[in-house]
Amino acid sequence: MESVLTLINSKEGVEDFEDIIRPHLDNMYRLAYRFTASEADAEDLVQEVMVKAYLKKNDITEISNLKAWLAKVLYRTFIDQQRKFWRSPLKLLKTSNHAQDDYDYLEVISSPEPGPAEVWESKIVNRQIHAALKALNPKQRAVCVLHDMEGYTLLELVALLETPIGTLKSRLHRARATLRDKLYKKNEELPYGM
Q1: Are 96 and 77 in contact (CB under 8 A)?
Q2: Beta strands in the chain (DSSP E)
């Protein structure tokens, strides 16, 4: 992410662009990572959004809610990437274990000094959540992540995703039902009744 800002700043007079965008980088990366479930893909997605934002650098100061605008651009870019991927004959070459090493982003430790059992349990649960999120289609995943994890209201999502509220409610309901079903089944498979 920083390399894009460095590249952009090497061009003529865009110091203001960095000052405007930098506070939103963490949020953009977090959203991208939740959408893609891969560090490399998330970084690529954020860089692509940065390029699109840079192309609008003259208009960027006039955007009233930059965070929402960047989230919208990120979402649309993600959906475009998903469409390209599923239409590509090379999708079969992508390994199913692609994001296997990327599960640590969800690791949540409730105490500053957890024991080995708590760390292990946390990793198992987070892997299950991650796998369940990946099972959702991209549009359901986006609504679920933006609403339930990022805190956007349904009315904000109507404007952000340009989708009718009924469709958003339906996607959110289906996403939650799928997550509930997958996580419940996974919980039954855990050893020692965890």
Answers
A1: no
A2: none
| Pairwise CA distance, residues 51 & 54, whole Å | 5
Q: Could you give the percent of the chain with pLDDT greater than 90?
A: 38
Q: Is the pTM of this model over 0.90?
A: no
Residue 63 in tokens: 């955007």
The CA-atom distances, in angstroms, between 6 and each of 17, 49, 175 are: 11, 15, 38
Cβ-Cβ contacts under 8 Å for 191 (sequence gap 6 or more): none
Write the burial class of residue 62 (CB in 10 Å: 0-12 exposed, 13-18 middle, 19+ buried). Answer: exposed
User: Are 78 and 114 members of one domain?
Assistant: no
Q: Is residue 101 part of a domain?
A: no
Taking every pair of C-alpha atoms in the chain, what is the biggest distance, in angstroms?
61
The predicted pLDDT at position 89 comes to 61
User: What pLDDT does residue 194 have?
Assistant: 42
- Which pair of tokens denotes residue 34? 């939740």
Distance CA 68, CA 159 (A): 9
98 assigned to some structural domain: no
Cα(123)–Cα(166) distance, integer angstroms: 35
- Residue range of the domain that includes 26: 1-93
